[in-house]
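hiii so my PI (J.) wants the whole complex modelled not just the main chain, which honestly fair. so below is everything: three entries, each one labled with what it is. i double checked the lines twice but i was tired so who knows lol
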Amino acid sequence: MANDIVLETEALSKHWGGIKALNDISLQFRDRQLHGVVGPNGAGKSTLLNMLCGTLKPTSGCIFHKGQRIDTLKPWKFVRRGIGRSFQKTNIYPEVTCLENCAISAQRRFGGNFNLFASRHSNQMVRKAAEQALAQVGLDDRTHTIAAEISYGEQRQLEIAMVLATDPCILLLDEPMAGMGHEESQRIIALLKELKKTYCIVLVEHDMDAIFELSDQLTVLDNGRHLITGTVDEVRADPRVKEAYLGAEEDDAEEQAA
Amino acid sequence: MTTELFFVQLINGVQYGLLLFLIASGLTLVFGVMGILNLAHGSMYMVGAYLVWYFATVTGSFTVSAVLSAIIALSLGILIERVLIQRLYNRNHLDQVLLTIGMIFVFNSLQSILFGNDPYGVAVPGALDGGIPFTDNSSYPIYRIFAALVCVAIAGVLYYVVSRTRLGMLIRAGESNREMVEALGVNIKSLYTVVFAIGVMLAAVSGIIAAPMRSIVPGMGESVLITCFVVVVIGGMGSIKGAFVGALLVGLISTFSSVLMPSMSNMIIYIFMILVLLVKPQGLFAK
Amino acid sequence: MIFEKRTERILVPMFFMVALFVPLFLESNSFFVGKVTTIIILSIFVMSLDFLVGRVGLITLGHALFYGLGGYLFVILSPEYEAVNFWVYTFYICGIAALIALVTGAVVLRTTGIYFIMITLAISQMMFYYFFDSLEFGGDDGVFIFMKPETSIFGLSFLNLDDPQHFYYLALFSLFNTLVFFKVVLRSRFGRIVEATKQNPDRTEALGYNIFAFRLTCYVIGSTLGAYAGFLFALQYGFVNPSFLAWEMSGTALVMSILGGLGTIYGAILGTFTYEGLQYFFEHLTEDWLLFMGSAIILMVIVLRKGIAGYLEKLLEK
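here's the output for the full assembly
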């Protein structure tokens, strides 16, 4: 069982001045599992994800990938180790086609990135990998459409396709269903169910129904602290979780009233 | 270097630094609040110097000329903001660079058309002429001391306005959050106009103060502009405190280097700036 | 096909056809041939800047540094009264310029945005003052180049740089190669990542690319070609002085590239010819041509946002 652990954090903390965005988080992420991360706004979910993919450096604590410490590496080295992430806000190349979006992601693995002369269209492997990634998320029919012109839901799918095209083993997904309609969400849920058979997925999501349905392991964060990690049922039964969420809902209500 | 020379250079350096601060504060203020990089800021310095020279030859009074020039500069600032700069708010740095380069060309050309290309000097106002005895056989010009004090006074007013007044509060808020300022019911457009006009006036006032100390020549705007860039980059773009520290550093370094190693003196502030950026890529007081 | 747009497929051949035949109908040493040669050389410089600013997204205000270096490096490297080989020295100059670009690039690319603009400006100013204050290189006046290089390859010489017409064709040939080179580079897989980095740098980094390395490579390429243009210019006029690397030079080149259509590469030629044409026109019209130039630039920023190429593409595409 222990060998299944692909990504691990040890006493991970991030402080901004005096504010503890994330405090002393030790988590283990296993291969072929979907590990959900939930928590009220400001709980530190995005901070955690940003540190797992290397864009934020921890104030203290470590991150291990397959037993090797990686938190000091440059962000782009994380991807090379197979840690890919999607973004909460759609983060694609709007001016080029969907295929080109995935080709940009896929190309790195095949070398020749500093070849100044060979045409970008000459490598069939890049093209195939890109097409495959599009097919995986069900965007085959949008291959040659400019990314800015597809629907919002499709852009979210493209976002995932771009991560898949990097050929990762760990997927860090930041609210892939944000702003989606019910039907579109269902598509993503189905997709994630399929993906978790082959990848380790860390999923941050606000949609509770979706996360309860998908998670093998579930971590609840509150105010930068680790509240509980366990199966969906264990988490549901925990009284502290209810408290954290009820408190948060009151806050939300106040915010809306103001 | 004798102690005497050292102190003279020290005062020169501080005085030059203070003048630089006055020019750079306008540049950094406009950038910090409005996000506009105004390459024509140096031209405003030139405008101040030429105007005060012109009015001084016409009226004969430095004080009257200084006030007149400052008022004209303020109006010019409002005009430029309303006609040109307003179109740049949603544009990138590149468009800002271009438009303000165009403005430099226009101002340089107008200077040449209106005043010709001969170098001019402005007489030091009578009351401030002469020197303060320093040692037995040397003295320090009173006007330079006066200029330094005026710079300090303006810096003080600026500090007070930014940190203590409602306008200052809006300026500080506008730096971080445009929407918030608008939510307060303030018209951000008029705030920007005011800030830009103040920036222009600060540059022009520096030109006015500098006029009796320096010769008034074509191209004076650009050389001062680039020195100011160094100042604000060292201090951190948009930070007035940074501009103050940066200006004093640059003033002292360039004054002393021109005595100690004259062949390198023009280069040295750039080398210093590169060193600063290597250690702190956003300048000393970056936000 | 490296020329993807219809506009470039029409304009580029048209320009080079006309340019190829123009000197044949003119006196070899006429003012016109010399003037057009200068504009062609300048186009190479502007094109290299257009690549950096428009395609890589590096807004530099210090590109003239390399233009000046191209000239000064020749003076520094070559013996004063002896004709050296043009091709060998092109190699030397480009090699050293590339090395300098690699070192300075590693410094300036640590910064982004407004700081990048300023630090590029500062470095070029620093070198400007270095040459301006130097006694060795004639200070303000610069240095004369007494001997033009000879151009033989393996003992065969078909190009005489003292002949303005020959020099014209050398410049034109260089411009054509530069254009094709940039087009090929941008079409490559390298170019794909360069474009991606400009569109969305954060995402590109998140996909595992070391965007610093890509930017640095581009900076070296653009700077080297800028230095080559400066070298040609110094050879044409037989001198080099600090004004080559003054910030006005960088600024004017930026204006030209935007006037032509930023990021279009071929637009650099349009922009340079138009700018120089306008300047020539205004200069003959009035002494105060700078006023008109300045107003024209301001107008351009406000009205003609996509440059001449953008306007033509609107007419010609589809």
